[in-house]
Give the backbone structure.
Amino acid sequence: MNCEQVRESLESYICKELDGPLARRIDDHLRRCDACTDEYLEMRRLIGRIKGLKEMILLDAASPVEAFWLAHRKKKLRSARLKTLVVGLTMALSIASSSLLAFPALAKRVPALPIGENIESLEKENKKIDAEKKKVAEENQKIEREVERLKGEITKVKGTPIRIEGDGNLPETENREAQRVVMDFVRAQYAGDVETMNSLSTPALAAKISERPGDYLREEFGEVTFATITNIIKKESDLLIFIKINDSKKYIDTEYQEDFVLKKIDASYRIDDMGTEVELPADLKIEEF
Amino acid sequence: MAERKLVESAKRGNKKAFASLVERYEQAMYCTAYNIAGSSWDAFDIVQDTFLEAFLKLRGLRDNAKFKAWLTRILVNKCYQELRGKRRMVVTERIPEQPDSQFAGFEDRLDLLKAIGRLEPEYRLIIGLRYFQDLKVEEIADILELPAGTVKSRINRALKKLRVHLGITGHLEVIK
């Protein structure tokens, strides 16, 4: 997708009205394009501000349905009129009193009124506050850009986006290898590929999968749309990896967590156990990355 | 109670069911009408007229599931009537009333409200339907009897114009 196509769809993207594949293409584009990301942030902020106006334009005096109700019941017509009159008078008074605020120039032409001076000092204060707000808004924009930049550091392993965690003590090659095994396994679960799942598992887990494949397959969940490795815990040469996953059918707006225990066999990792609530070995000494 | 049941009950003459139905949309409809009319009393009248017409014509609604769209269509017609009436008036600049000033960011919001007020009626209407009534593009297209593509481009144009009024041009100059 080019920038023009992305920008044409940004509004629907922000309002979450695009279908999955198109939204993902825009996700991809935004990760690569700073200008479109700025545009996206700006538009999202503006839409949020417009929606926020609903809190401001309030039906505080009386509700139309209430008034309609009163008008409809003729017996109470008089009280409805009274209410409308009270509302009207209140509004008229409020407009009259706010007209000086709405037209500062008018206020300045009324020197006898202390309100004129008050307005001037309030205007100065407002300008000061505006300058501060602008500064804070700039800071916020900076932070938002940084967040977007960090999101952009999502790396892909064989087409599935993953977030690389733990650049600490776990050697990079081991880190990548462990993540590759887990992500390949997740993809195989969604593809219904028992053979690949078994090839990535220890014999113990492979036996469990062959016995009850339905407990491990995720074909009916659609496709993986996003998988994030949230934590890796190491115990001697074994690893415990936590992943959060979204997919295209079941977990569209929410995510679920899968836990994987990986054992190192010879030089490579194999999955020894997995599930939504894998029990930690009792003697596990946790070393987090 | 589910909306469809309320509609069915209101059709049979249950006034409480009707009241509870329209109460759901009262605030969002008021915002939309306010956006078009620019004054709280006109908005109030528009919404009240909408409810009255809805009450009188409810039996004519064929698909109970489409109550919201049907009600919004009545509101839109009332807004058009209001605009037609106002054409006779010479308006130099719309200065919105000052709603409740106790809200945080009041000045910002007032600026935004003024900027919306400077938009042409069709853009003010589309902003109201999209962001105050939270309607989908398809729903708006259905209500306004326009193609979805036209609705989308009208929304985009409204946002662009708003940004120009607010002085937030960003990267607008890149894409025309």
The mean pLDDT of chain B is 81. Chain B touches chain A through 50 residues (CB under 8 Å). Helices of chain B lie at 3-11, 15-37, 40-57, 67-86, 106-117, 121-132, 137-144, 148-166.
